[in-house]
Amino acid sequence: MNIITKIEVQKRNKDRSNIYIDNEYAFSLSNELVYKEGLKTNEKINIEEIKVIAKEDNYLKCKNTALRIVEKSYKSEKELRDKLILKGYENEEIEKSISFLKEYNFISDDNYTRMYVKDKSRIQGKKKIKYDLIKKGISENIIEEEISNIDRDEEREVAYNLAEKKYNTIAKRESDKFKLSQKLYRFLLSKGYDYDTVSYAVKKVTSIDDI
Length: 211
Known about the structure:
Blueprint: E1 2-9, E2 16-21, E3 24-30, H1 31-37, E4 43-45, H2 47-72, H3 77-86, H4 91-103, H5 109-120, H6 126-135, H7 140-147, H8 152-170, H9 177-190, H10 195-206
Antiparallel strand pairs: 1-2, 1-4, 2-3
């Protein structure tokens, strides 16, 4: 058995403490875990207990990192998992942290998709919204359910407004109506609108019936 000879709060991070065993620095732990485990100086501890404590501490660090990430901006489950992997956390502590956040509704792909669709439908069409959400790891079932709520007339009106703004910009340097309309077509298609919506918006903006 080894003995904890000193527990010292770190100078640079007051939330963590350095643990000394047999008068030598052994590892650092969050103060939360030091308190939770009831660690004290002159207390005997074995290596296996240290491993268990360190594992729990890694989970707490991972969980707190995850919380800080979602505090800055709402994330999909995949986005959060990818960020935690990049920060070097192990799969077990990542999954445990994500389960915690899901349990307390800090992350929810349903809520994320709902907000994303509401926000992006003001500037993008259904195709691009769906494509981007798939890249974020959202299931197609969730995506389809949400984008089906986009009002068809509202989508056409948004496309028209975007086309009008774009028209006012490119009309300053392009006088050929056909070329101008083709640029509008490409612009709106790149925004993820279907052909019918694009055609409606372009014809309304350019006042051309047959393009």
